[in-house]
Design brief:
- The chain has about 550 residues and is of the alpha/beta class.
- The protein has three domains: about 190 residues, 3-Layer(aba) Sandwich (Dimethylsulfoxide Reductase, domain 2), CATH 3.40.228.10; about 200 residues, Rossmann fold; about 110 residues, Beta Barrel (Barwin-like endoglucanases).
- It contains 21 helices and 21 strands.
- Strands 17-19-18-21-16-20 form a six-stranded mixed beta sheet.
- Strand 12 and strand 13 form a beta hairpin.
- The longest helix is centred in the first third of the chain and has 15 residues.
- About 45% of the residues are buried.
- Bound molecules: ligand MGD (2 copies) and molybdenum atom.
Length: about 550
């Protein structure tokens, strides 16, 4: 979000999911949508059937890469060099959109100067992708009638994540591949309502609608609406997740309420997370299932699951949708919002937290969130596909495609932000000669508290595994289906070996759906977004021995 806000103005997909079918070229970078966004994958395949070119940049030959016309197997953490070289080719060969850049964008000269230092031959050395393929990708993306960029965690989960996102925005602006059907910069969100959670200000630095807490006028507006004094609202942004873990460790944070997170499995450098969380004086966890995190809780508050709740969710492409309850909550479980209201009331905020029903919450959202101002429960309940924000008035049909006229920045101009390549926080050494990257598989979901209790999924994907190239397996003496021990500067984990040519020599991949994986990952943060570098850790591997712990 930070990268797109700085360049284009809004941190969200520019185009609707279904609009991917209108693209003539789709550049997917750091996204394995065939496994992780199967519905979105469908529209990409529709585009392909109409002749679109699919370019996939991923260190692994994934199920997504399998359907690519051009596959760019880059080394983890080198995306910026690849994108810079593509822009180098586009400028050198005169394929950029001069008129678009002149009229709508600032910062072209600085960008041109920087990318002139990234000829394809240099990028080939950094990324491992042949220069000819970088040139082919650049030409295909720049010259197609409508090109769309799709990206996900493969580019964001790095210390340079925000910068790489800016660079993707640079690429779209340079070629004018934005603001029209089939174009755009499209970050795929992870969870069904993560876009909505961010829109509602579930971030440490903003109120709903991305209104900064540091702005006095915003604090006054919210204080007035909630019958509070402006001084009661802190002007200081709060902490992000990994920063909170550090604050617990330092004794600065002593109590915590967790809602729908399993940080003991999902957070980087997990041994440190467990150590820190044990220091909490009080931990309450609002959950639908027991998890590794609820084991440390002093109180567990049982929540109703998605099917037992009603209200809106905002999809990855900004579509606000109304969903009705399908079944009644089981036992003592209640909707998260009711739990929050009860907690808040006991803390002295009865007045602010008396909502008779979900509709009442939405009226408040609408009043406080400018991009939702024209939405209402009544409108949304009648439109099954939902309405995409910004929707400013009751007769506004919403905005499927952003930036059709201008960008959402001062003066309407997009901002090109040149990005220099920086290596990952951890590089390989004699002691840790391999690169470990991480991610997902179709059959499990995130930290696994939901899917690891599903027998049919467990039968097919029962345990932590590590993908190893045949050459690497040979060098380090690990065998297919045998157990291996993977070690980083932070810890070790035992995993079942899968030898496969789908991963290059020198790189290992592990899914984080099983508890031990994040013992290995690096908690170095992107300085802006504070996202951890899950996608690169220096590691070593050897056959497991007796006494190495269990898979
Ligand atoms: N089945 C299933 N679906 C899911 C989830 C799940 O757990 N299971 N989780 C959901 C969530 S919360 C999210 S955020 C999304 C995530 O969706 P994705 O981002 O697609 O998932 P990942 O597997 O984390 O990463 C995508 C790809 O990035 C590649 N990669 C690793 N390092 C690099 C790099 O340096 N550069 C590039 N270009 N690529 C790299 C990996 O090989 C991987 O194939 O999925 C959502 N959907
Ligand atoms: N190594 C590595 N680590 C990663 C990543 C990676 O790519 N590599 N990806 C990161 C990413 S993108 C993400 S999003 C995180 C995900 O990490 P988490 O958010 O910690 O993982 P989830 O499993 O999605 O946790 C959600 C929890 O919410 C509970 N839950 C489900 N529905 C409800 C509900 O309606 N109400 C309540 N109160 N609880 C509910 C589930 O039981 C589950 O325990 O992991 C991150 N960790
Ligand atoms: Mo995510």
């Amino acid at each position: 979000m930070a990268g797109l806000a700085a360049t284009l103005g809004s941190g969200a997909m520019t185009n609707p999911i279904v609009d991917l079918a209108n693209a003539d070229c789709i550049f997917a970078i750091g996204s394995n949508f065939a496994e992780n966004h199967p519905i979105i994958s469908r529209w990409v395949l529709d585009a392909k059937q109409c002749g679109a070119t699919l370019i996939v940049a991923d260190p692994r030959f994934t199920s997504t890469a399998w359907s690519a016309d051009l596959f760019l197997p880059l080394l983890p953490g080198t995306d910026t060099s690849l994108i810079n070289a593509m822009m180098n080719v586009i400028i050198e060969e005169g394929l950029w959109n001069e008129e678009f850049v002149r009229e709508k964008v600032e910062g072209f000269d600085e960008l041109r100067d920087l990318v002139s230092q990234y000829p394809p031959a240099r990028a080939a050395m950094i990324t491992g992708v042949p220069a000819e393929d970088i040139i082919k990708a650049a030409r295909a993306y720049a010259t197609s009638e409508a090109s769309s960029i799709v990206y996900c965690m493969g580019v964001t989960q790095h210390i340079c994540g925000t910068e790489t996102v800016k660079n993707l925005a640079n690429l779209a602006m340079l070629t004018g591949q934005i603001g029209r059907p089939g174009t755009g910069v499209n970050p795929l969100r992870g969870q069904d309502n993560v876009q909505g959670a961010c829109d509602m200000g579930a971030l440490p630095n903003v109120f709903p609608g991305y209104q900064p807490v540091t702005d006095e006028a915003n604090r006054e507006k919210f204080a007035r609406a909630y019958d509070m004094e402006p001084e009661d609202i802190s002007p200081t942004p709060g902490l992000t997740l990994v920063e909170m873990t550090r604050a617990i460790d330092e004794g600065k944070l002593r109590g915590m309420v967790i809602l729908g997170e399993n940080p003991l499995v999902g957070d980087p450098n997990a041994a440190h997370v467990a150590e820190a969380f044990k220091k909490l004086k009080f931990l309450a966890v609002i959950e639908i299932f027991p998890s590794e995190t609820t084991e440390l809780a002093h109180v567990i508050l049982p929540a109703a699951s998605f099917a037992e709740k009603r209200g809106t969710k905002t999809a990855t492409d900004r579509r606000v949708q109304w969903l009705e309850r399908a079944v009644e909550p089981v036992g003592e479980a209640m909707a998260d919002w009711k739990i929050i209201c009860r907690l808040a009331s006991r803390m002295g905020f009865e007045k602010q937290f008396t909502y008779p029903h979900e509709e009442a919450i939405f009226y408040e959202i609408r009043a406080m969130t400018p991009s939702y101002a024209g939405l209402s429960p009544e409108r949304l309940q009648n439109i099954p596909g939902g309405i995409p924000w910004p929707c400013l008035a009751a007769n506004d049909p919403g905005t499927p495609i952003l930036y059709t006229q201008s960008f959402n920045r001062p003066g309407g101009m997009g901002k090109m932000a040149p990005v220099e390549y920086i290596p990952p926080a951890e590089v390989t050494s004699d002691e840790y000669p391999l690169v470990l990257t991480s991610g997902r598989v179709t059959l499990h979901y995130n930290a696994g508290a939901m899917t690891r209790r599903t027998r049919s999924l467990q039968e097919r994907e029962p345990e932590l595994f590590v993908q190893v190239n045949p050459q690497t397996a040979e060098s380090y003496g690990v065998r297919e289906q045998a157990e291996a021990l993977v070690t980083t500067r932070r810890g070790e984990a035992k995993a079942r070996v899968r030898v496969t040519r789908r991963i290059p020599p020198g790189v290992l991949f592990m899914p984080f759906h099983f508890p031990d994986m994040n013992l290995l990952t690096n908690d170095a943060l992107d300085p802006t977004a504070k996202i951890p570098e899950y996608k690169v850790a220096a590691c070593r591997i050897r056959p497991a021995e007796e006494g190495d712990g269990h898979v």
